[in-house]
């Protein structure tokens, strides 16, 4: 099984802890400075979402490799209310993001692959993957 | 550039240069969020950085400062793209408001009432891929013996399709008779479409009529997706084939109609190609999967079937509809 | 990041640090153009800069390199906004194609033929502020005695307005009679609009009919901009007032019609509020200026007058139309 | 009368000369480094347009002041074919600019005020003004 580490998100400080974990992992896996910053930003967004909308949850980081390629998966999970309209959340809400490129579309852009699973009343699991180029 | 920003950034930079912690980087990124919101261009950020660094380390060689001047020059076009983005966002917002309004106008213009006949259940779901729907459903009924439904799809999506749809509506309005034969309906609409639509616009239409007295479903098609017939006794699907030219190609077409006798529990599934051409990353969702899905739901009400099928297919496609999605079921309940 | 880019940038940087010439800055900016086209994010530019500087001056203190790491962190969100911009541009492009197509569909749907009657010159200009026109012109004519024109304006612009217009067209199509009285025309259209349009959509319409036999221009208005009447003998304008409720407010309205006798050289100017509410940075363009402008052109052909007025007002507004602009002139030539 | 200097645009090298003139003037008037670079970029675009579409023309720089404010006007003039549809040229052609924010809308954004006068067959005069903030 692949190496996995995690941070519980309860307070805003945990966002920083999750970022730290993600940056360290990204560095060790071999990502360059800019990609480390991108992965960290994606974690920031996901952790912030948990903190704001689900109250609590966790960020896990998994190192992955496949056919000589190395990468990282961020898994953000919570037992919050779930997302009623996924299509809407994945739409670029340009005006709501105010050009910050934030939210789920932002995470999708920062990473290579993005999957979302959500059940109303049960929670949400988001998996975002990035490979070293 | 307000001096306050420079002062704040210098403090963040001082902290970070002293201790390279995640918390200081987090502070930096949160600050950059504010800068974007305050419309500070990226070249300004470089300039702020340069000034802060100059104040902290005035002894650095001239070359370093020259290098920053080049970096500012490099950023100017990024800044322009950024400014362009701001105005594009505003346009996008206006467009969104306009499209919402247009979708509303379309809904009012194209509204149709689902007939209520005893012995017949009707289920309908029609979801546009974007704001405006290029699929069109129109019901005709005498509220007693006959229920007719037109399921149409403009080849194309969005606004141009929506404009075309408004034309079909006026054609259908002029019919006002639920007993009209399907072939005759297609005939009339074809003539209207041919007359007023661009040569490069085509519309496919399926027209079906159910008569509760003799339980016969009569149908004709103008180049439309075949309907599915579910035989409850056999527990099997068959396709309701019907040949016919798309609407608007030539002025005079004689459409042919067919009929099928329905027993209790049988139902007809009419749809647009947005249903049959659902696709995931791995390719099209196979027809059989859709048929199996409907099969597994066949004891449910007509509306439950269509709703469940939509939800399932939406999920399979990762919540990205590539085409307008319309599904209508006529189910004989007694 | 291809190494080639780093190598090229390092060369530009080396040149510039050596000699701070405009030519080197120009080279830098042209290079930044290429980077944007290659989808290089702004944070990547900082990183490229840092790497080049490190190679050139490895002896610089650690603090300088740390400072660049913070700068990269600061740029990440600018990079996100930049990436968002790229996809927004693509959406915008798709939207543009769609709007062009829609505008074309609209043109075909709403096409109308300018009547040709001896003794009457008709000039028409109708320019949408955006792609889709929310102003609508429809001519009715028996090509012998009577020429009728409907000038309508949906309160609102763009796509929702365009959808509404399609409805008016079907209403007008059902008339098919150029001898109909203006008040009756408004009556009929009002009923159609009231029935099928959202409560928050209103349409103003002016209907005028000219009879070449008796030289009488008869008109009625549903809350529309008054027309101007030019008396050639006196060289004076007067307003053709007509009261009447906007279309679509209540189902039954009785409109009143008025008439005016025309002499050779006289003309009637019908318009939408896009003409009268032209505005520059300094405020509205005064009515008098428009009247004077038309006056100065009164000996020209009807088409020359409307074209010239449009060009002049477009220029006064710095080429930014705030509303759809429609101007129709009926001029008695003999 | 205010101080005015100019550069003829005939070859691509004249674009650099016009930029140089603009940057020097902007510096002397008192613009900061970033604004100097913006003014220079605007001149680049205008000079490039002359070079590409009119063949020849000139860029003039005028220093201006008004009520204690100081600024600069760039005047780009040519005797080229003129612009048939000004509305179109002033529209953001996002896709044609490829996100470069180039063209006339780009110049308008870089400067504070922008005026265009054009006559078919006679030529075009563009005046773009920027004030020190
Ligand atoms: Mn379609
Ligand atoms: Mn379709
Ligand atoms: Mn309007
Ligand atoms: Mn108007």
From TrEMBL, chains A, D:
Residues 34-133 form the Histidine kinase/HSP90-like ATPase domain. This is Anti-sigma regulatory factor. It comes from Paenisporosarcina macmurdoensis. InterPro entries: HATPase_C_sf (IPR036890), HATPase_dom (IPR003594). It holds the Pfam family HATPase_c. Gene3D superfamilies: Histidine kinase-like ATPase, C-terminal domain (3.30.565.10).
From TrEMBL, chains B, C:
Its EC number is 3.1.3.16. It comes from the Bacteria. Pfam families: RsbU_N, SpoIIE. Keywords: Hydrolase. Residues 117-332 form the PPM-type phosphatase domain. The keyword Hydrolase applies. SMART domains: PP2C_SIG. The keyword rRNA-binding does not apply. InterPro entries: Bact_Sigma-Reg, KaiA/RbsU_helical_domain_sf, PPM-type-like_dom_sf, PPM-type_phosphatase-like_dom, PSer_Pase_RsbU_N. One of its GO terms (molecular function) is protein serine/threonine phosphatase activity. PANTHER family: PHOSPHOSERINE PHOSPHATASE RSBU, STAGE II SPORULATION PROTEIN E-RELATED. This is PP2C family protein-serine/threonine phosphatase. It comes from Paenisporosarcina macmurdoensis.
């Amino acid at each position: 099984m692949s190496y996995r580490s995690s941070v519980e998100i309860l307070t805003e400080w945990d966002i920083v802890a999750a970022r730290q974990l993600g940056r360290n992992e990204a560095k060790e896996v071999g990502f360059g400075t800019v990609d480390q910053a991108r992965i960290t930003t994606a974690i920031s967004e996901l952790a912030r979402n948990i903190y704001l909308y689900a109250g609590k949850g966790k960020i896990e980081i998994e190192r992955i490799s496949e056919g000589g390629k190395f990468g990282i998966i961020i898994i953000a999970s919570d037992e919050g209310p779930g997302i009623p309209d996924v299509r809407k959340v994945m739409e670029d809400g340009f005006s709501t993001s105010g050009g910050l490129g934030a939210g789920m579309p932002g995470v999708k852009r920062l990473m290579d692959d993005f999957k979302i699973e959500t059940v109303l009343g049960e929670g949400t699991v988001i998996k975002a993957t990035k490979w070293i180029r | 550039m307000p001096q306050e920003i420079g002062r704040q950034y210098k403090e963040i930079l001082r902290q970070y240069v002293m201790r390279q912690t995640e918390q200081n980087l987090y502070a930096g990124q949160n600050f950059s969020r504010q800068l974007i919101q305050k419309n500070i261009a990226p070249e300004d950020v470089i300039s702020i950085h340069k000034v802060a660094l100059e104040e902290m380390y005035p002894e650095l060689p001239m070359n370093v400062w020259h290098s920053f001047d080049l970096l500012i020059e490099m950023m100017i076009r990024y800044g322009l793209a950024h400014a362009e983005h701001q105005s594009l966002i505003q346009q996008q917002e206006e467009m969104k408001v306009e499209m919402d309004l247009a979708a509303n106008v379309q809904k009012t213009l194209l509204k149709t009432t689902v007939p209520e006949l005893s012995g017949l259940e009707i289920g309908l779901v029609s979801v546009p891929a974007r704001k405006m729907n290029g699929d069109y459903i129109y019901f005709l009924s005498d509220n007693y013996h006959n229920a007719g439904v037109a399921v149409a799809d403009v080849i194309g999506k969005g606004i141009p399709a929506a404009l075309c749809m408004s034309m079909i509506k006026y054609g259908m309005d002029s019919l006002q008779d639920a007993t009209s034969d399907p072939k005759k309906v297609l005939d009339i609409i074809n003539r209207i479409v041919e007359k007023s639509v661009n040569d490069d616009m085509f519309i496919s239409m399926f027209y079906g009529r159910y008569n509760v007295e003799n339980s016969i479903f009569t149908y004709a098609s103008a180049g439309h997706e075949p309907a599915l017939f579910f035989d409850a006794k056999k527990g099997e699907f068959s396709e309701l084939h019907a040949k016919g030219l798309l609407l608007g190609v030539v002025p005079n077409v004689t459409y042919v109609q067919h009929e099928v006798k329905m027993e209790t529990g049988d139902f007809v599934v009419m749809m647009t190609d947005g249903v049959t051409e659902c696709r995931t990353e791995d390719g099209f969702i196979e027809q059989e999967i859709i048929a199996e899905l409907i099969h597994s739901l066949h004891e449910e009400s007509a509306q439950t079937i269509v709703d469940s099928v939509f939800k399932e297919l939406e999920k399979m496609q990762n919540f990205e509809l590539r085409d307008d999605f319309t599904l209508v079921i006529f189910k004989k309940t007694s």
